[in-house]
Design brief:
Blueprint lengths: L3 E6 L2 H12 L2 E5 L3 E6 L2 E7 L8 E5 L3 H11 L3 E8 L4 E7 L5 E7 L8
Parallel strand pairs: 1-4, 5-8
Antiparallel strand pairs: 2-3, 3-4, 6-7, 7-8
Length: 117
């Protein structure tokens, strides 16, 4: 069983390109006004609408710190808070913004006992 999170967008092409090029997401399904992307089993879509949804956080989970660091490098000027440890949640994370201002988080769980798959 799986699920998909959809977001309304005013700039579908730019947003899809951002997630493909900077986070290595792949296009799973193209529909007339929606694109569904996939990142390591995480399905998320963007549908062309008159107003963009920019609430919430799209979190991309990596297997190690090096993955988070590499993602931060690919995100480049979109990074708003560089990689750092967050002791409260026992994670290593960075934050960026996509072309419409959505918050993007890249993280790894530091506790080896945490398995979300």
């Amino acid at each position: 069983m799986t699920g998909i999170v959809f977001h309304a967008t005013e700039r579908r092409d730019a947003v899809v390109e951002f997630y493909r090029d900077r986070l290595n997401a792949t296009v799973r399904i193209e529909q007339p006004d929606c694109t569904i992307l996939e990142f390591d089993g995480f399905l998320f879509g963007f549908c062309e609408r008159e107003a963009a949804d920019d609430c919430g956080i799209l979190t991309f989970v990596y297997p190690d710190r090096e993955g988070v660091d590499a993602a931060a490098d690919r995100l480049g000027d979109a990074v708003v808070k560089g990689p750092r440890e967050n002791e409260t949640y026992d994670i290593y994370q960075c934050f960026a913004e996509d072309p419409e201002g959505r918050t993007v988080e890249c993280q790894v769980f530091l506790d080896d006992g945490v398995d979300i798959k």
